[in-house]
Amino acid sequence: MSYTLMFYESQEDFAARKDPARQQEYLASWTHYVHALREAGIVVFGSGLYAPETAATMKRRGGEMAVQDGPFPETKEQLGGIFVIDVPDLDTALEWAARGPVDTVEVRQNIPAVK
Record's InterPro entries (predicted)? Predict the structure, then answer.
């Protein structure tokens, strides 16, 4: 079964990505996790995302699509990256999500592609 793990990061986490004093520690926390996923052979796809302020959100208003700069949700944490993994069940997906170096991970089963 295919699941998407969506990792939410705080503004502090996004800032650590660019801060020379904290960048190495930030990257190290992810490196161990990424290697474990790859060694397990369950990664279908994975990617970090640029900071939320680089986002654009499209929303339909009155039948017209409007572009809003930045992410749509007004929350303290924003989507920082995703992994699509292929595991036997939800429990296994949740186990892998819990191993990630962030406090909030959303896990969703993927709908199979239409062939």
Answer: YCII (IPR005545)
